[in-house]
Q: What sequence folds into this?
């Protein structure tokens, strides 16, 4: 008989192969791990990640559902299920999945950000901003949350707060292109035309290089 840890080794090998872009070998190893021990939620989770990576979303959802059936408090599975439903524009199941993740772990920034994105999609900017504020309380340098907060402020007509959010995003990651582009727009809305032009000129210079 094989080692009781053999299926975990196969699953971990699959993740390594996945990161090396050797997708066929990765999926073969990930599937073999699940076949060897289908009651292990970690190998089901890893298979789900692999299937999602190659675009097999329906199969990925089944793997995540299997992981949750074994371990209902597996936060990561709920989060990725929410993301898959969100990507497919299924707002209701996405919201339910993210809410389950937050119920398990109130500090889960990925789930909070997912709920913020859904609120933004629905035009509920105040709810989205409140959720992003919570993300930033937990992770002050979360670049995606800062950019999204800036976009909400811009769309809500508060360009000054948008400028502040985009500046914070660029401080955390000076190469964040969305923050650069939208900072220029926000500065223009604030009447700071010369600063906006300087950013746009710098973007053009970098793109030429």
A:
């Amino acid at each position: 008989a094989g080692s009781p840890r053999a299926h975990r080794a196969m699953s971990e090998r699959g993740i390594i192969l996945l990161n090396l872009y050797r997708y066929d070998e990765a999926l073969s190893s990930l599937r073999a791990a699940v076949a060897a021990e289908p009651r292990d939620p970690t190998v089901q989770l890893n298979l789900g990640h692999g299937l999602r990576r190659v675009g097999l979303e329906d199969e990925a959802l089944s793997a995540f559902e299997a992981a949750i059936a074994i371990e209902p408090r597996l936060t990561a599975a709920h989060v990725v299920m929410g993301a898959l439903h969100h990507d497919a524009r299924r707002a209701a199941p996405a919201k339910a999945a993210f809410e389950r993740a937050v119920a398990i772990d109130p500090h889960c920034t990925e789930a909070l950000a997912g709920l913020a994105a859904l609120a933004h999609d629905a035009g509920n900017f105040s709810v989205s901003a409140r959720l992003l504020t919570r993300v930033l309380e937990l992770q002050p340098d979360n670049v995606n949350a800062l950019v999204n907060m800036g976009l909400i402020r811009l769309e809500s007509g508060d360009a000054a707060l948008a400028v502040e959010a985009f500046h914070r995003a660029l401080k955390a990651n000076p190469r964040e292109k969305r923050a650069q582009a939208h900072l220029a727009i926000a500065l223009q809305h604030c009447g700071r035309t010369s600063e906006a032009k300087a950013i746009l000129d710098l973007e053009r210079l970098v793109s030429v290089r």
